[in-house]
Amino acid sequence: MRKPYLFVLFVLTLYSCSNDNSKINYIEDFAVFIEELEFQKASESKINWENKEDSLNMFIKRKNNFRLSSNDENAIALLLEKFHSLKEPNANPEMNVNFYFENSLSMNGYLSGKNFKKVMHRIYGNLGAYTVNPFFVNTKEYPQDDVLNKIDNSNIKEGDVGNSDHLFIFSNAIENAKENNLSIVVTDGIYSVKDGDVDIVSIDIETAFKNALTKNGIETVVLKLSSEFNGQYYQEASCPNKKKGGITINQQDRPYYVMLFGNSQSIDKALNEITVIDELPGFEEQARFFLTKNLKANYTILTTGDEKHGTFKASKRGSDIIEEIEDVEKFEKSGFGGTPKNENYLQFGVAIDYSSINLPNTYKEDIENYWVDDQLGYTVTSVSNVADMDKSSKTFKEVQHINDKNKTNFTHVITVKADKNLYGNLNIQLQNNLPAWIENTGVNDDCDIIDDVSHTFAFDQLMIGISKAYQKVNNNSQYLDINLKIKP
């Protein structure tokens, strides 16, 4: 268990002599709330300040329930002061950018590609507002002047271009993404291994990332793009008649990758201002990895909407935030001409606020990323983005009504369904899975690469290592839990 901050300990000493246990519990709860907030700010996690303000107001209201001494008042005043100081923006909001272009020989084939050129100009052009440190990188980093012009003129030879050390490249990028800085890596994603031995790739990358994350809890974003490739490809697998000088390939859509490393705010800024996905020709997929400590999301069962199939009511009256329902019955409709009953199931929607969950919508909306406790008979049948719903639908109107009334921000609706074992505690988890596109992109045999425009050698192993490192530092295999109670 993490030791409380010295600030919290100091606050607690101001009222430790009080005999009012309820009052002590109140101030302890308040102090822990501030401690957790301080930890989030220190770890540069994304903070939903609107929700934090709501929690703060609850503590302020509870204050009136107690008879407070001057020491108690001083303790609460310190906690309030600490909250407002934490809410202030960082004193140094400037973001410096490290731009790493992998200049190994295997990158030469992209340099004349139209999509590749457009992406490089778009990204580098968007860096004009920032202090930029550009590098060529392979087994070491090499500072550059006018790096975009060198890329345009295919003048990228520097250092050991015959090799690329991704352990060094990524560890170095993370190390230099400290504080508010951002690192951008442009790479073909091909992990160079001796004699095609891909078995150790994920282990080596996992170890490197885990060590780096314990020092610098940053996020990683991977963008998969494609462009024309015309040049030499250097096979990594143990292929028959493998040529030391590579083989010539000419493809219209060979994958390459742009990777981002930084804290949550820097990554968000990069995706909104620098690597804007809608402005990157050839963009295909994305993934985001981050530490999940203190990750939470508000959710509520919808008592009306297009998903509802069956009858039930909220167990608790007078609230739109519902986690427990009762008088639950399946919808039963007699079949045609005396045939057995059909449509005999229960179904409802769960609205959830995913606004602070830094995952692509494609991940949030993939039902394969959800796990449901099999003690009950429920499955997740769909996940819908509220912004994409028909504005005249019952569900959209209900979610908007709840959001407007309660100042919430429910962004998605998870639909669950069961035809048996309806009653009990329903646990749903958003799992920390490796995105399917990553598994489909990696390959451990590039001997037939001339006709293969979909795969990158050992890319899946590279990403598995990164994913496992985040999971181990997070110490869990899920992003969050949804816990509901269903009663007859």
Please explain how this structure is put together.
The chain has helices spanning 6-13, 21-42, 49-62, 70-87, 114-125, 147-152, 166-175, 201-215, 264-273, 361-364, 394-406, 436-441, 459-474, and strands spanning 96-102, 131-137, 141-143, 182-187, 219-233, 247-262, 283-289, 299-301, 311-314, 324-329, 331-333, 342-352, 370-372, 379-385, 412-418, 424-431, 442-443, 456-457, 478-486. The chain is of the alpha+beta class. It has 3 domains: 6-87; 96-292 and 441-474, no CATH class; 299-431, no CATH class. Helix 1 packs antiparallel against helix 2 and helix 8 packs parallel to helix 13. The radius of gyration is 27 Å and the shape is globular. The relative contact order is 0.12. The model is unreliable at 15-19 (pLDDT under 50).
